[in-house]
Write a structure and sequence with these properties.
The complex is a heterotrimer of chains A (92), B (354) and C (288). With 92 residues, chain A is α+β, with helices and mostly antiparallel strands. Chain A has 3 helices and 5 strands. In chain A, strands 2-3-4 form a 3-stranded antiparallel beta sheet, with no helix packed on it. In chain A, strands 1-5 form a two-stranded antiparallel ribbon. In chain A, a hairpin with a 2-residue loop joins strand 2 and strand 3. Chain B has 354 residues and is mainly alpha-helical. Chain B has 16 helices and 7 strands. The chains are: A alpha+beta (92), B mainly alpha (354), C alpha+beta (288). Chains in contact: A-B, A-C, B-C.
Chain lengths: 92, 354, 288
């Protein structure tokens, strides 16, 4: 069952600085600053490549990272909700 | 009044300004929410270095304000898109979204949108879902009043961005005497690339005139009138003049638009349709005095006049019997937290997502 | 306005108007020796006004107004008019300053290196900075640090130091009486007394300094020092800034530049002597 598909703004619209393993992001369209931890930066990177729903996103992430336990799906949904509320991703 | 006239002249004809009371000009501009517009109008002028720095900072700030306003509109769009109803941007945000001349240097407070009356409940639900919430302490008595008689939902504020949205379904309260045609406003609205709408040019002017007179006590009037000047100059054509008069009459706001034209012409030299506008009257002089009622320290100098205008603006919105009751109840309660206002709001802290 | 005073403080100039003479007389004495703004041009206007017209004479009530206003701010008594003027200047900076990035912090400088002291109110930053200012350091400011976004330099903003309660006695023991304003008792924050920075601070108020160290001092614990991670510093500094959000990408870039350039330490200190000792140690390490 496909959920809503999400997309992120192009790379040039977000300034990113790494500080102690966290990413500080300045999002130009909103003028807002966010401090995010993994996997948020990775999710943004993947959604820039093309729109995806949570299931597809999980597949892309699994191809790159190791996941422990079966919390991954719930975690992805939660992160997507947060990123959407912050305006960093939107429904495609 | 001298310093308010200085501001008007600086906006109208920046090249004509010699050395002047810069402190006074800047304080009046700030008090009237016109510092951004002034800073852009004066961009090419040579001014003392400190004044140039103030104007430069004001231009940067205006760019930020524009960005923020457009972002609020975008977030509202995202929340409301699934409903499939027209969402019409109004006032400053509309100017920015459509890149109108009136947007240059224009600060924006709340996001004002208009939606069909029938969709109000769904719109409110969608906004609440997307993180807006009712403003706490927003005049408890007035919740019923707002929903029934005013032309908007009670104000909503976004919980993390700390920015307000005002949702209207027409451009004047239902209790006001002129009854604009809300459906006609929606039917004539123009769709932007984003999918959001703005009013048609003539309707934008009609709304601006309504806002200037009927919807307030003329606080911020110099800025509203500057909007009107910029809009009229950008849209002016024989077709537009015909359309403006037609729409003004349709929305029962002919006298308001005519008065707005007279005052814009008088203060900012706006080219207007002299026949429709009519002659500058004694009553107009009172309006003019009210608009210019600031001294060089930014103080409002016409207290008695100001109270008369406040009373008048309430009378225009409500029949007299309701007015008496409303004012009495309002006076009994301590002054509520101001939901809108010319005053700055505290900047929101950055959002943090982990 | 009936009474007026013009002040230049670092790169920022104010005009303060008042319906009453006394607060401005006191302000003028407190700021004796400060320059007047060039050509009288002012960045901000502060107004001390009666809440209602009759409150000018009858139970005088001083409303703090100006270019930028907090609509629901409570007025002060005339006896605290000097405090109203100071709060008015703070308000203009907090709401209207868009040219420099503002941090709620004290700054001191020695040998061209500036130390930023920031953290919660009441942690003793003002007192520490004021004391350092009397021990060979230059006091650049006790309330606001001004970061020039283009150059990355800190600019001085040497307002009168706002001392509260116990800190008043500490500084009275160190500094001559002529540099103090009147004791304002019974304010919402307790007793307040203002202290003018010394001649060195005033003479050099046009001179910026390169930021070298960020300190988060905390009073009341046994002496301890720990490094603060950059992400935490970033978060704490944005919270300490009234205009970070309004400055957009320039604010983001200059704050990151500041953090990249400066080590950041949290220090707990049981007494000011310990704190001053720690600051001197850090300075020597930086100079080495």
């Amino acid at each position: 069952m496909a959920g809503p598909r999400y997309i992120a703004d192009p790379e040039e619209t977000v300034r990113s600085v790494e500080l102690d393993g966290l990413s500080v992001l300045f999002h130009e369209p909103s003028g807002m600053t966010h401090i995010v931890a993994a996997p948020a930066p990775e999710i943004l990177e993947m959604l820039r490549a093309g729109p995806a729903d949570a299931a597809e996103l999980l597949r892309r992430l699994r191809a790159r990272f190791e996941f422990e336990g079966n919390e991954a799906e719930a975690a992805i949904h939660a992160r997507l909700d947060e990123l959407e509320a912050a305006g960093l991703v939107r429904r495609a | 009044m001298r310093n308010a006239r200085l501001l008007v002249r600086a906006l109208r004809d920046p090249a004509s300004l010699g050395d002047c009371d810069w402190n006074g000009l800047i304080s009046v501009a700030r008090a009237e929410q016109l510092i951004g517009s002034l800073a852009f109008r004066m961009a090419e002028r040579s001014v003392p270095a400190r004044v140039a720095a103030i104007f430069e900072a004001a231009r940067h700030d205006a760019a930020q304000a524009r960005n923020q306003a457009l972002w609020e509109a975008e977030m509202a769009r995202r929340a409301l898109a699934p409903l499939g109803v027209p969402v019409i941007l109004m006032k400053g945000t509309a100017f920015h979204a459509a890149n109108l001349d009136a947007s240059v240097g224009r600060s924006v407070g709340d996001l004002d949108i208009m939606v069909p009356h029938a969709s109000l409940d769904d719109v409110e639900a969608a906004l609440l879902q997307a993180g807006w919430e009712h403003v706490k302490d927003a005049e408890g008595y007035d919740d019923g009043y707002y929903r029934r008689w005013m032309h908007e939902l009670p104000p909503l504020i976004h919980r993390s961005r700390d920015r307000m949205i005002d949702v209207h379904h027409t451009i004047l309260p239902l209790t006001a005497r002129p009854r604009p045609d809300a459906q006609a406003l929606i039917d004539a609205s123009l769709r932007l690339d984003s999918g959001l709408h703005i009013l048609s040019p003539a309707d934008i002017l009609v709304h601006a005139a309504a806002h200037l007179f009927a919807d307030g006590d003329l606080a911020g009037g110099l800025r509203n009138l500057w909007d009107i000047d910029r809009l009229l100059r950008e849209f002016d054509s024989p077709d537009f003049r015909r359309s403006l008069e037609e729409r003004a009459r349709l929305h029962q706001l002919g006298p308001h638009v005519a008065r707005a034209l007279r005052l814009a012409h008088r203060l900012y030299g706006t080219p207007v349709d002299r026949v429709f506008a009519g002659r500058f009257s004694l009553a107009d002089r009172l309006f003019e005095a009210r608009l210019l009622a600031r001294n060089g320290w930014g103080q409002d100098r016409r207290k008695p006049l100001r109270f008369a205008f406040y009373l008048r603006s309430h009378w225009l919105r409500m029949p007299p019997l309701m007015l008496a009751r409303h004012l009495w109840v309002k006076w009994r309660r301590p002054a509520p937290l101001s939901a809108k206002g010319a005053a700055e709001r505290k900047p929101a802290p950055p959002a943090i997502a982990t | 306005m009936r009474h007026q005073l013009f002040l230049q403080i670092g790169p920022v100039s104010f005009r303060i108007g008042s319906a009453w003479g006394e607060p401005l007389d006191r302000l003028a004495r407190l700021y004796a020796g400060y320059p007047e703004p060039e050509a009288g041009l002012c960045d901000f206007t502060v107004r001390l006004e009666p809440e209602q017209p009759w409150r000018r004479w009858f139970r005088p009530s001083v409303a703090i107004r100006g270019d930028y206003i907090l609509p629901d701010a409570a007025p002060l008594s005339l006896a605290h008019g000097l405090l109203a003027a100071e709060m008015g200047m703070n308000l203009q900076m907090a709401l209207g300053q868009k040219r420099y990035l503002l941090l709620h912090a004290a700054t001191v400088e020695k040998d061209g290196r500036a130390v930023i002291l920031t953290g919660e109110s009441g942690a003793g930053k003002s007192t520490l900075a004021a004391l350092l200012g009397e021990r060979g350091w230059r006091l650049m400011g006790d309330e606001f640090a001004l970061l020039d976004m283009a150059s990355g330099m800190l600019l001085p903003f040497p307002r009168a130091v706002s001392l509260k309660n116990g800190a008043i006695r500490v500084m009275e023991a160190e500094v001559e009486a002529s540099r103090f304003g009147p004791l304002l008792a019974g304010t919402p924050k307790g007793d307040i007394r203002h202290m003018r920075p010394n001649r060195n601070a005033l003479a050099r108020m046009g001179e910026g300094a390169r930021p070298a160290l960020i300190l988060f001092p905390r009073f009341g614990e046994a002496g301890a020092v720990r490094a603060v991670g950059r992400a935490e510093v970033f978060m704490r500094l944005t919270q300490a800034s009234t205009n970070y959000v309004a400055l957009g990408s320039r604010g983001f870039d200059s704050l990151n530049r500041l953090i990249a350039a400066c080590p950041a330490l949290a220090i707990d200190y049981p007494d000011t002597a310990t704190a001053i000792g720690l600051v001197e140690d850090f300075r020597q390490e930086l100079a080495a």
